[in-house]
Design goal:
Strand content: 5-15%
Distance between the termini: 98 Å
Order of helices and strands: HEHHEHEEHHHHHHHHHEEEEEE
Largest sheet: 6 strands, antiparallel
Radius of gyration: 39 Å
Shape: elongated
Helix content: 25-40%
Strand order of the largest sheet: 5-10-6-7-8-9
Number of strands: 10
Length: 387
């Protein structure tokens, strides 16, 4: 293979050496072509020469040096051809077939295909300094499939603990198909599974974490603090009667209200906002002790609070734990125009910056956090719980 230089190319070559920190290297590139017949060999050789000429590269056939050419090409480190060409390090690197970095870790799992060499990427993330990763891509590009594939490889080939937060439920069938290798825990309002952050006693925590006497004393002091402090930390709720708020918050996202209207005694679905409030009060023991009525109709709830002098007008600012009652202004809706009778009820969570935040059942047929301005004209009033 030979090249010819113009004056411009010679100047560029010199600039590469003097200003771009390139080095001049001697190189020889030898190609072996094989064929079944002499005619096919001549045809293939001419095709290669023609292609090279199109790219301004001149190639020459080795005459009476075929054996030397073959020995030069074979990968055992011999060079029998003494023709050299000068190239810069940058140009020579183009011809190197081993410039791609392969990832073939021992104990590695499949992570895809090398974009350059098209070989498999087998990576053991335990060897990495940072094992975190993101799966990014446009919709439909296969992010979920890649995640499921990775989870499958890890479950079948490692002892890693895999925790999957799966709000859409799309990974549950995969884990269930693994049999004893995994478990599906369905945590939801009204569900059977629960998360218990206090599954260990204080003594067990002290032993596990090797608390000293001072730390044991602090732990005991924290556990003796009134429950309202934990409500303030977890939910931002302040007040002396927030137990019912805690119960209500734990039910957010329940759909259909079956745990509440069935608890009340109904055999099929009813408008269940009042059943939800009554259920929350019952969880606190308020119905048994007479703190709150058991009511399925909002009008009956209002009547009870008024009769017990535990009623506050809707223009007032409520406190957490109060029972809120609404009188909807919906002339064309099922509730009709305002008539002084309650249409809906819920539980006051907190009041901030002139906004009343509530937890309400049967809000779009689910338990939701709602908000309205203090004194909103559709707020009929509040029932006050006095434990």
């Amino acid at each position: 293979m030979t090249w010819s230089f113009s004056a411009k190319e010679s100047k560029e070559f010199l600039d590469d050496l003097t200003t771009r920190d390139q080095r001049m290297m001697f190189a020889v590139i030898t190609m072996v072509i094989t064929a079944d017949t002499k005619e096919q060999l001549d045809l293939d050789t001419e095709t290669v020469l023609s292609t090279a000429r199109k790219h301004m590269c001149q190639m020459a056939t080795l005459k009476y040096q075929q054996t030397d050419g073959l020995n030069t090409v074979l990968p055992y480190g011999l060079r029998k051809i003494n023709t050299f060409r000068t190239l810069t390090t940058e140009s020579l690197a183009v011809f190197m077939p081993f410039k791609v970095h392969e990832i073939m870790d021992k104990g590695g799992i499949f992570f895809g295909e090398n974009a350059i060499s098209h070989n498999l990427i087998m990576c053991n993330k335990a060897n990495l300094l940072n094992q975190s990763a993101f799966l990014l891509g446009v919709p439909g590009s296969g992010k979920s499939f890649s995640a499921k594939e990775l989870i499958t490889f890890l479950m079948l080939n490692t002892d890693d603990d895999i925790l999957i937060c799966d709000p859409e439920g799309e990974y549950a069938p995969l884990v269930e198909a693994m049999g004893d290798l995994g478990s599906v825990i369905r945590v939801s309002a009204g569900g059977r599974d629960r998360l218990n952050a206090m599954y260990k006693t204080a003594d067990e925590m002290s032993d596990q974490y090797r608390f000293n006497d001072d730390q044991d004393s602090q732990l005991e002091e924290l556990l003796n603090v009134d429950n309202s402090m934990w409500l303030a930390v977890l939910y931002g709720i302040y007040g002396s009667d927030d137990m019912i708020v805690q119960v209500a918050l734990s039910q957010i996202d329940n759909v259909g209200g079956e745990p509440y209207w069935s608890w009340y005694g109904f055999n099929s679905r009813v408008e269940w906002c009042a059943c939800f409030v009554s259920w929350c009060a019952d969880q606190c023991g308020y119905i048994e002790t007479g703190v709150c009525p058991k009511y399925a109709g909002c009008v009956n709830g209002v009547q009870w609070f008024k009769e017990h002098n535990q009623w506050v007008d809707g223009s007032e600012t409520p406190s957490p734990g109060m029972i809120i009652f609404y009188d909807w202004d919906s002339p064309n809706g099922s509730s009709g125009p305002q008539d002084g009778l309650s249409d809906h009820t819920g539980i006051v969570e907190r009041v901030e910056n002139g906004i009343v935040y509530t937890v309400e059942g049967n809000s779009g047929d689910s338990c939701r956090q709602c908000q309205r301005a203090v004194g909103n004209y559709e707020i009929l009033g509040y029932g006050v719980l006095i434990p």
